[in-house]
Design a protein that fits this description.
- The longest helix is centred in the N-terminal third of the chain and has 4 residues.
- By secondary structure, the chain is mainly beta.
- Among the domains are: about 90 residues, Sandwich (Immunoglobulin-like); about 210 residues, Immunoglobulin-like.
- The chain has one helix and 44 strands.
- The strands form ten sheets. Strands 3, 4, 5, 6, 7, 8, 9, 10, 11, 12, 13, 14, 15 and 16 form a 14-stranded mixed beta sheet that branches. The chain has a four-stranded antiparallel beta sheet with strand order 2-21-18-19, with no helix packed on it.
């Protein structure tokens, strides 16, 4: 990035004869609270968001900085009885309850927008991660319960076991208030994986994360995230060693004074300083002593219009100490603001290479390599094994221009390993099952029967193919035939344990698959499998196969020496095979497979 700005220096002299005092606030980025008290519920608790039947004496206040505390803060309280744990959060939010993550489609990603996340270690070897949000699309409370295995202090999430509850079933209420929203929730002990309430005096490790998305509830990453209930700086998502402590108090109505938000420092109005702005812009203003030393910063990058500006100074230095009487100089730096000019970017091939609101910017994954690709009509869908700031699957046109990007973790908590499409939907395998996205927008959607995912027994999916309304998944040598109009597995065909790659043959009722020593044809009408080419195929190659233009066969590449002429299916067994050019493990880059000529491909 190239940064340019122009500035003006303004100086004025002023005299000081008296001053007053100013209190300073110490800033900290550490968790504000290391512990929380869970008090006994004073009686029957009605989950309505009102909290008028709560004992809030154990409530804690969370914010990051005094300067932003008024805008972003949360008050969290916990209670318990023999049947359940109760959780409340009073959240300050200018655009409350904006979260368009649909838990019925994507139950593991609700934390990306307005949400509250609470983790509790329920035994030496188990913990639970609770993500609570309000799905704006259906105006519905959503609770995601993620089971965790604990080994020492390391956390292992089991997303395949994630449970999502909605509406009244969630035992949660979100109530919008004048300054944000109130969340009230009830968690039966069995829902937390526990058989009974802890005894008074018991202690549990716990942590909380408070999340704010953007004003439209469509953020790909939280705009603001606060972690609390930590004993030290730590990535609480992965390690519970630094989690704070929750104590189950024997009695309630604790003798504590509710904590107040920090007051903003108010500058005493003791001395008027005036200067002239030569043009509209940002101004930084400082006071300098007779030796030219900066003793007080009054403004930093504040926007003002052209003309005479009046500021006030209390006569203190930056440390809040009284300055002696004398002559001081006021200096201002004025500029139009820092602008950016894109020159070039490395590593990211997007146009532009940064994330844009419409989803066309940036490119694919940022934590994995491109591993598979599918195409239909004028759309192409490459996938990556993992992404965080990027996307595991993107949609492109035939010129390689990105149209959208999407995350794929959904039901299984892992990236995809193969992709297929019918032109309207994009199907992804994630090891243990299948998920689906809209081809036009990339939005996660549902299979027939309102199914968010289709599990493949035993998992181990290695490749996918689509043909005539059916999706085929190859897993552990078994071909699973999924009827898309029903969202069910229609039948299975045993292919062989060594089968890896899979492709459909357009215009036929046949698939092809790769083995370590052969390529074989699968007839879908009778389920028979026949060898059409025999010869050693490298392990790095055999997992990817495609039937391209004029029904020529191509296999994903291994090394350049293995490239050969593409072979029409009618001539299989008569002259070798040709690998499909898309990505290479050697160069780890996505090329342009949709620009490949019909007959010859240069590797």
């Amino acid at each position: 990035m190239l940064t340019r700005f122009t500035c003006f220096i303004i100086a004025a002299a002023l005299a000081i004869a008296f001053c007053s005092t100013l209190q300073a606030q110490q800033l900290t980025t550490e968790a504000r609270n290391k512990s929380i008290s869970i008090v006994p519920a004073p009686g029957k608790v009605v989950i309505d968001g009102q909290l008028d039947d709560w004992d809030l004496s154990g409530e804690i206040l969370t914010y990051s900085f005094p300067e932003t505390a008024e805008k972003y803060n949360v008050r969290t309280a916990l209670m318990y009885d023999r049947d359940a744990l109760y959780f409340s959060a009073r959240v300050r939010d200018d655009s409350p309850l904006m979260n368009f993550i649909d838990g019925k489609i994507d139950k593991s990603q609700g934390w990306k927008n307005d949400a509250v996340q609470f983790r509790l270690r329920t035994s030496p070897t188990t913990a639970v991660d609770l993500v609570m949000w309000y799905f704006t699309g259906r105006k519905e409370a959503t609770l995601s319960i993620n089971p965790i295995t604990v080994a020492g202090t390391e956390l292992q999430y089991h997303f395949e076991g994630t449970q999502a509850l909605f509406g009244t079933e969630s035992d949660m209420v979100f109530l919008q208030t004048e300054q944000g929203y109130t969340l009230e929730a009830r968690f039966p002990w069995s829902r937390l994986g526990m058989t009974a309430a802890p005894a008074p005096g018991a202690k549990m490790a716990t942590s909380a994360q408070l999340l704010w998305g953007n004003a439209t509830g469509t953020a790909n990453w939280p705009a603001v995230s606060m972690n609390d209930l930590l004993t030290s700086a730590s990535f609480a998502y992965q390690n519970c060693g630094a989690w704070g402590e929750a104590t189950f108090e024997a009695k309630g109505h604790l003798a504590r004074t509710p904590e107040k938000l920090p007051s903003r420092p108010v500058m005493a109005k003791t001395l008027m300083c005036s200067y002239s702005m030569p043009k509209d812009g940002l101004v930084s203003l400082g006071v300098f002593d007779a030796n030219g030393q900066l003793v007080r910063t009054l403004l930093t990058g504040v926007r003002h219009a052209k003309g005479t500006i009046h500021e006030q100074w209390d006569g203190l230095d930056n440390a809040g100490k009284v300055l002696p009487a004398g002559t001081y100089t006021l200096k201002a730096l004025v500029h139009e603001g820092i602008t950016q000019e894109w020159i070039v970017s490395l590593h990211n091939a997007g146009t532009p290479p940064w994330v844009t609101a419409d989803g066309t910017g940036s490119w694919g994954g940022d934590h994995g390599e491109p591993i598979d690709i599918a195409a239909a009509g004028d759309r192409v869908f490459p996938i990556w094994s993992a992404a965080e700031a990027g996307w595991e699957v993107i949609g492109c046109d035939l010129n390689g221009k990105k149209l959208w990007g999407s995350h794929t973790y959904l039901s299984y908590g892992q990236g995809p390993n193969s992709v297929a499409t019918d032109g309207k939907l994009v199907f992804l395998s994630q090891g243990k099952g299948l998920t689906v996205h809209e081809a036009a927008t990339g939005k996660a959607t549902l299979f027939a029967g309102e199914k968010r995912a289709i599990d493949i027994p035993g998992g181990g999916i290695t490749d996918l193919a689509y043909l005539d309304g059916h999706l085929y998944a190859l897993a552990r040598g078994i071909l699973y035939d999924i009827r898309l109009d029903q969202g069910t597995i229609d039948r299975t065909i045993t292919i062989g344990a060594q089968a890896k790659g899979l492709a459909a043959v357009p215009g036929t009722h046949e698939l092809v698959t790769t083995f370590h020593d052969s390529i074989r044809r699968i007839r879908l009408d009778n389920g028979t499998v026949a060898t059409v080419f025999r010869g050693k195929i490298r392990a790095a190659v055999r997992s990817g196969i495609v039937v391209g233009w004029e029904n020529h066969l191509r296999v994903r590449p291994g090394t350049q020496r293995e490239c050969r002429e593409s072979v029409p299916l009618s001539q299989w067994g008569a002259g070798g095979y040709r690998r499909y050019t898309g990505w290479t493990s050697r160069h780890r880059r996505l090329q342009s497979p949709w620009r490949v000529p019909t007959r010859r491909v240069s590797c």
